[in-house]
Design a protein that fits this description.
Tscrpt_reg_HTH_GntR, two-stranded antiparallel ribbon, Arc Repressor Mutant, subunit A, DNA binding, alpha+beta, DNA-binding transcription factor activity, 34% strand, WH-like_DNA-bd_sf, Chorismate lyase, 2 domains
Length: 243
């Protein structure tokens, strides 16, 4: 008896995942694209994908479509750490890929924190096991970044490079939608859900020394904070209304 077509498609997709063509967390082609590739209806494609979902191989989320299932990386909010250290702790191999490196006039929102003048702006993508995990842009005052090279910031964290003792950081996390540029870098659909983290890092004396923006596809990471004390409300702490 001939194998039912949707099962054939499911097995072919399973093979593509096993061979690494479709890696963990990777967004699959749309149902319409898969329908055209396999020359079947979208109903057949959906049945194949549901079969793989039952096996825990793929999953779907509003705004993303279908993607290869992956356990999100848990990032602790209780300490000042780097993406690389969080990925390494999760068992993934972290790599930085520099997209842009250069000195620019500080944008107004950065100048409000670091002061006016030139800043080193570095835009990069962080990879986890070879797949895009985050797009990061860092702004550093010229006095701290003048001696840094593109190779420096590709091999090491700003925390290790700027040469000042660090005191802490303030991080704001909100929901966003992937821009055209970020979608291309992160390999996700335009407009798909992302987590946007804006961070201001201070030196030991409390002076801001770095401003950074981190954009994560929402299905790849989660942020965890320990709440050691019970207050009068069970609502999450740190919530504020956005204008």
């Amino acid at each position: 008896m001939r194998t039912i077509r949707y099962r054939e498609i499911a097995e072919d997709l399973r093979r593509r995942v096993a061979e690494g063509e479709l890696g963990a967390g990777r967004v699959l082609p749309s149902e319409a694209e898969l329908s055209a590739t396999y020359e079947v209806s979208r109903v057949t494609i959906r049945k194949a994908l549901e079969l793989l979902r039952q096996d825990g191989l793929v999953d779907s989320r509003q705004g993303f479509g279908w993607f290869v299932a992956v356990d999100p990386v848990s990032q602790s909010l209780g300490r000042l750490g780097t993406i690389e250290s969080q990925l390494a702790e999760s068992g993934a191999a972290p790599v930085r890929k520099i997209l842009d490196f250069g000195f620019v006039g500080a944008p107004s929102e950065v100048a409000d924190v670091l002061g006016p003048g030139q800043v080193l702006r570095v835009r990069r993508v962080n990879l986890a096991d070879g797949a895009p995990f985050a797009r990061v842009t860092v702004w550093c005052p010229e006095r701290l970044g003048a001696q840094l090279s593109r190779a420096d910031v590709e091999r090491a964290s700003f925390y290790d490079l700027i040469g000042v003792p660090l005191g802490g950081a303030t991080q704001t996390i909100g929901a966003g939608a992937a821009s055209d540029a970020d979608a291309a870098v992160l390999h996700v659909p335009v407009g798909s859900p992302v987590l946007v983290c804006d961070r201001v890092t201070r030196d030991a004396e409390g002076t801001p020394v770095l401003v950074s923006e981190h954009v994560f596809p929402a299905h790849l990471t989660e942020f965890v904070v320990d709440l050691p004390h019970v207050a009068g409300s069970i609502s999450p702490t740190g919530i504020r209304l956005v204008d």
